[in-house]
Amino acid sequence: MADTDLPPLNAIRAFEAAARLGSVSRAAEALHVTHGAISRQVRLLEDALATPLFVRAGRGLRLTPAGERMRDAAGDAFARLQGAAATIRRAGAAPARVLGCPGSLLARWMIPRLPRLTGALPDLRLHLSPHEGAFPASLDGFDAALLIGQAPWPASWRVRMLAPERIGPVLSPRTADATRLAGLSPEALLREPLLHTGSRPQAWPAWATAHAAAPPQVLGTGFDHLYFLLEAAVAGLGVAIAPQELVVDDLAAGRLLAPWDFVETDAHWVLATPRDRADAGIDALADWLARELA
After folding, report:
1. Residue 52 within a domain
2. Residue 169: is the preceding peptide bond cis (ω within 30°)?
3. What is the span of the domain harbouring residue 274?
4. Which of 129, 141, 143, 159 would you label with 70, given CA atoms 20 to 30 Å apart?
5. Cβ atoms of 203 and 167 closer than 8 Å
6. What CATH number does residue 49 fall under?
7. DSSP assignment of 234-249, as one string?
8. What CATH number is attached to the domain comprising 273?
9. pLDDT by residue (tens digit) across 162-217?
10. Looking at the domain assignment, is residue 55 inside a domain?
11. Which residues form a coiled coil (predicted)?
């Protein structure tokens, strides 16, 4: 099987149920199949991935590191599919609101929270539209825009402040020399080659200023977009700087560490709408976003 081939979906479904429920028997009951059918599908998935996902632990099963990774990925994927399916079922005749959002915010913060959004606002239909660069003052093509920025704002916008932005350095525990790096003071860290992005050139200097330190003089690898920067950090390529909200899930899962503090910047998470357009659905979305960011 090529690296780009997706393993059999039935096998993934059987494995996810067994991993989530902690038992092949309970997975068989949940999926209304036999114990043997679940076992065969799990073996099929292990063969497709060329690695064991479970090992025997006494009379039960224990996930291998590969199994834990596959469990997390499969569970997240099924949750997103369930959320999308629920949204489609409820769609009815109500038009979808178009929410513009930078790709990094969309991929790393908004999409993982879609199941919660659907549960909280089941009647709100959203079409998520990635947008890079500055939004037009008219917000033409958008019912609302979710972004991180700072005043002044276009006079044609009604801006709902959701939360202050907080930024800080992060690194993967897989990063070479991670233990030494994590023990550095902010001043010493800023003398290391640091990952950075052209879309947020002010991030490292702002963090340095908050620590009364000189800004970094030599930066390491640069990336065009914040999303790629954070993926590089997760891959262990070095120390990156990121908005706290975009890495909160990675920190909770242990994929990233934040040995240094996060500091507030002059920017805010905001939801912008055309000033001349009232929309109760978008107002409800703004309230939900503020709660999530709190």
Report:
1. yes
2. no
3. 88-164+268-293
4. 129
5. yes
6. 1.10.10.10
7. HTTS--EEEEHHHHHH
8. 3.40.190.10
9. 999 999 999 999 998 999 999 999 999 999 999 999 888 889 999 999 999 998 87
10. yes
11. none
pLDDT (0 to 100) of residue 189: 94
112 and 129 share one domain: yes
Distances (CA, A) of 238 to 129, 148, 177, 231: 30, 24, 9, 11
Helix H segments across the chain? 9-21, 24-31, 35-49, 65-90, 103-105, 114-120, 178-182, 186-189, 203-210, 226-234, 244-253, 280-293
Q: Do 147 and 178 reside in the same domain of the chain? A: no
> The tokens of 58 are what?
């006494």
**Confidence tier at 90 by pLDDT (50, 70, 90):** low
pTM above threshold 0.70: no
Query: Are both 137 and 186 inside the same structural domain?
Result: no
- Token pair 């991670």 is found at 178
Cβ atoms within 10 Å of 91's Cβ, excluding its own: 12
